[in-house]
Amino acid sequence: MSHLNRLFFALELPKTLQQEIVRWRATHFSPEAGKPVAAANLHMTLAFLGEVSAEKQQALTDLAGRISQPGFTLRLDDAGQWPRSRVAFLGSRQPPRGLLQLAALLRAQAARSGCWQSPQPFHPHITLLRQTDSALRLPAPGFSWECRITEFVLYASRVEQGRTRYQPLQRFALKKEL
Ligand code: 2AM
């Protein structure tokens, strides 16, 4: 059997936005709130693929390459937490339709290719903190960042020297809006 890679499709955030979010996080969450995700690892997952062989990766990227969807503007103006998985995240109060369509396509392609998909509906989010404290307080609303999304990315999740690193493997352009 060929080597397996832990893969997922996601939206990359511009470095400047990653830095801004990290600065905001430092002033809006206490150090005890949870374990902060590294700036370079802030991303929005579209479809998680699991442990995938080189052959399946090829089939999945062939399918993803056929997606013809327009780009969209992502607004991050919401924060939430999942106490059970002990995660705090950023999200959108009104996720753009383009984002939901893109994730639905990628998740359907993954399911058809035999990748297990969670039965939970897609909830677009950027994980900010893990192992959150049960007393975590979310920041008050009033923040908002926007970024233009022109592509999606296939990432491999690797652990290097005890640290998780997301390595971009392949980029897929979205259509320019008229
Ligand atoms: P999370 O940030 O909500 O934990 C790499 O691990 C990315 O894939 C992360 O964005 C992570 O989401 C997501 N991920 C990991 N395991 C997953 C699973 N079983 N189902 C869906 N997404 C998963």
Automatic annotation (TrEMBL):
Its EC number is 3.1.4.58. The keyword Hydrolase applies. The keyword Protein biosynthesis does not apply. It is an enzyme of class 3 (hydrolase). InterPro entries: Cyclic_Pdiesterase (IPR009097), RNA_CPDase (IPR004175). Hydrolyzes RNA 2',3'-cyclic phosphodiester to an RNA 2'-phosphomonoester. This is RNA 2',3'-cyclic phosphodiesterase. It comes from Siccibacter colletis. The lineage of its organism: Bacteria, Pseudomonadati, Pseudomonadota, Gammaproteobacteria, Enterobacterales. The gene is thpR.
